[in-house]
Amino acid sequence: MQAANEQLSSEDQALGEAAAAAEAGNGARALEICKALAQQGNATAQYNLGVLYERATGVTPDFGQAIHWYRLAADQGNPMAQYNLGVMYDVGRGVPQDNEQALYWLRRAAASGNASAQTNLGVMYDNGQGVEQNVETAAQLFQLAAVQGNAIAQCNLAAMYFYGVGVVQNFEQALTLYVQAAEQGNAVAIAKVTEIIEAIDADQN
Predict the structure, then answer these.
(1) pLDDT tens digits along 104-155
(2) 90: which residues sit within 8 A by CB, 6+ positions away?
(3) How many CB atoms lie within 10 A of CB 136?
């Protein structure tokens, strides 16, 4: 048991060193550390390696390599890798655009509580992209992400409350959500809050 703890601590220390290197602009060093750990099966390192290849941090951009490492981490249950893999299939980056694969990976990440995946999945249900349109399911997914503070989900859910789509129309709830998103700098929400407040003021006058 002690040996296992020491090994875990050693891996965490290496991951910390890689993160520090990447932050300092030394992508090559971060890549070197992450690749060594990733080849040993460390899911976090595999995910980090995918990010390094996707964002071309210290390496030549290689979406194929990004997909490869994301998939290895995703298969081990890493929610961020599952989310990134889902997005790459959604937009067709490094792989042919594939709604079925996008839904599969986004659903897995969303089930793990990943707010970004819940938001993207909600958009797919809202638009009927690769799945039968279901605004109620979209609203439920946006709600899960909104309570975690995801500004895009808050803004999307606010719009649904404002127009009564997928939920019972509730202007007060819409305004609350828009304010929450606006406080995080969401430009759409900021504009909408201003619009609603001006409409309320005009109505009272």
Answers:
(1) 999 999 999 999 999 999 999 999 999 999 999 999 999 999 999 999 999 9
(2) 97, 99, 102, 106, 120, 124
(3) 12
For residue 4, give every residue at least 6 positions away whose Cβ sits within 8 Å of its Cβ, in sequence order, or none.
none
CA distances from 85 to 1, 3, 81, 153 (A): 34, 33, 6, 20
Torsion of CA 31, 33, 34, 37, to 10 degrees: 150
Helix (H, G, I), strand (E, B) or coil at 167: coil
**What 3-state DSSP class applies to 113?**
coil
Q: Give the chain's radius of gyration (CA, Å).
A: 20
Tokens matching residue 76:
């081990």
List, for residues 183-199, the tens digit of each pLDDT value.
Answer: 999 999 999 998 888 87
Residue 9 CB neighbours (<10 A) = 10
Q: What three-state secondary structure class fits 117? A: helix
CA distance linking residue 139 with residue 119, whole number of Å: 10
